[in-house]
Amino acid sequence: MATYCLTVARLQLVLGHGARRFHVAAALNAKAKVAMSRFEPNSSINYDKLRSNIDIVRKRLNRPLTLSEKIVYGHLDDPAGQEIVRGRTYLRLRPDRVAMQDATAQMAMLQFISSGLPKVAVPSTIHCDHLIEAQTGGAQDLQRAKEINQEVYNFLASAGAKYGVGFWKPGSGIIHQIILENYAYPGVMLIGTDSHTPNGGGLGCICIGVGGADAVDVMAGIPWELKCPNVIGVKLTGTLSGWTSPKDVILKVAGILTVKGGTGAIVEYHGPGVDSISCTGMATICNMGAEIGATTSVFPYNHRMRTYLEKTGRGEIAAVANENQDLLVPDSGCHYDQIVEINLSELKPHINGPFTPDLAHPVSDIGSVAEKNGWPLDVKVGLIGSCTNSSYEDMGRAASLAKQALDKGLKCKAQFTVTPGSEQIRATIERDGYAKMLRDVGGVVLANACGPCIGQWDRRDVKKGEKNTIVTSFNRNFTARNDANPATHAFVTSPEIVTALSIAGTLKFNPETDFLTAPNGEKFKLLPPTGDELPARDFDPGQDTYQHPPADGTGLRVDVNPQSNRLQLLEPFDKWNGKDLEDLQVLIKVKGKCTTDHISAAGPWLKFRGHLDNISNNLLIGAVNIENDAVNKIRNILTGEFGGVPDVARYYKKHNISWVVVGDENYGEGSSREHAALEPRHLGGRAIIVKSFARIHETNLKKQGLLPLTFSNPADYDKICPDDKISIVGLKSFAPGKPLKAIIKHSDGSSETIELNHTFNETQIEWFQAGSALNRMKELQKLV
């Protein structure tokens, strides 16, 4: 401390006593650089650059800035010249790093290989978490995954080594937990190839989910584009207590804003209530912000984040964040486009579902609501963990309930599974006895991986089509997502409520008021859960599962077997031919909700994520065809026969017939998986016309050379018949802000013209004209 004060005094002599404090902090930061992570000692945190950019933008805009604006605008490629209008202009940004999970990293790395570049330009990592199927238990499931996925893991490890990407081996944990423990820090901008990347907002970061092509841009050192987000402020007052948990905050927000209410916006939490939430609790809230369509979510830097950084071995980062705290909180008087207020002292435990994460119910009401709607009351399986809720605090609070039940001689009536978020969490809860309590109450501890949350679950207790209820601490509960059974009613809630309902075995149990019966007939209530925010002792890191890339990987090879059914090198998509798109056949007119799970299913299909042709066999197999209310059953206009969506698409492609998909609201919500854009492009699609898009999917479609278009009049959706042909005209004068026309040709010979809107900017139009963003990148490389 004495050295610090002496240095400050000397700096003030040079700068003058009138110099503002942050000039001193900036000079100190320049003097002693702090590494971004312990794995990247040569990459330093640059708060000086962040501050400089923020100062430039603040002077230009002449107004207070939200925290979201500070971090986003602080990463502008050209802060002096960039046009900045919320909700309208496209920003060119320089993110600090990239993270990729193994299912999306395959395609991202295949695209990076196609770019011809020798090494990534920013720190980047690959995380093996998506390909481990839950069957019997952690160790056995992990070993089986290593054997089944050896080819893919070897590809990702060798590609990482060659191109300078860190590699987290299977068993390391879920990408978002690894990021929080090792790479996230206040003020960082990170993009990740997973829709729940916003988890990092719990540590004061702007972390945004993207498709693989966006990741390639950043890894290539190209400015990354993002439409300037609006900012929704969520003001928190009061204090969390009792059965209410951080998860209930986002469950409540989802009920208010719905699955598309956050589209095009960053959700920024603020207010005195923030300090009652742990850092990992804030991460939970930001994680599930993906379910309201938000670009990302973020919390202001505070003492809870500082403590978490220190406890995870990053005290130096905490110290430099403290010195720059004015950058890491919103300016007083800043403006939010919308404000939601939640009093945490009044907030009750919530449970959302089934089939959509924004159908919110107080836990006290869910039993009666379920009875009224005919939802199964018996809880078949309770599942805690996932990237949303697998912290030390989450596990401790669940274990406190397990101990109460065990002390009374009770075990779970429902099946019960536990997914640790990382190897560090697994090792620490084993050491501290939480895992044993959860096992003793009937739980099965699964591998440190995504598992059932993303459909990697070999579930055998119910038959497909059998109505049943499961409760999870996951983030997403779309039809058939967890177990491939469309009749499963999945509800999302906190780990505490999942544990309580698993012990009781029914949705009719309200732990705040209802009694359980011990084997000896004693009636008792569960006391509210308790748990330490962080372990009293340091975290146990567990096994070392990280592979650092060599300093020079140019001599290494990355081999892809041409006969592989898991991996396939990419061929460039065809360029636009300079003409309007004439007579596109409607492949399918989708009815209702169509998420990326409907467009490109996960679960057993994850094994083909590195093989575009094979993964394309799941194209839109979950979407409902408006013609017959069936899934994966559409009419082949050429033959008159019905077939699967990918089969008909392939038939059309073979006969040189381009096609179009017509969809409803918020098309493509959910996962960031760019396969939902690659597959229609690969099988001959040219345009997707809908009432509205989810943000990530719309961008992914543009990246692959498709036309994502929206009805100027949403009622025009009703004008299109499943057997129509559609011509999209005006492409020769395709320009930002200028609508296109669609001529709908009906089978009876009549036609009508409608207007279609788009959000393309000039750069994105170049992607379309080149055939894809990757094609355009290669064109620009030839010009250098």
Automatic annotation (TrEMBL):
Primary location group: mitochondrion
Residue span(s) of domain Aconitase/3-isopropylmalate dehydratase large subunit alpha/beta/alpha: 69-505
E.C. number: 4.2.1.3
The keyword Transit peptide belongs to this UniProt entry's keyword annotation: yes
Top EC group: lyase
GO cellular component, one term: mitochondrion
UniProt GO BP: tricarboxylic acid cycle
Compartment(s) where it occurs, according to its Swiss-Prot or TrEMBL record: Mitochondrion
Cofactor: [4Fe-4S] cluster
Aconitase A/isopropylmalate dehydratase small subunit swivel domain ranges (all copies): 585-713
Role according to the record: Catalyzes the isomerization of citrate to isocitrate via cis-aconitate.
Record-stated family: Belongs to the aconitase/IPM isomerase family.
Protein name: Aconitate hydratase, mitochondrial
Lineage of source species: Eukaryota, Metazoa, Chordata, Craniata, Vertebrata
Gene: LOC113056047
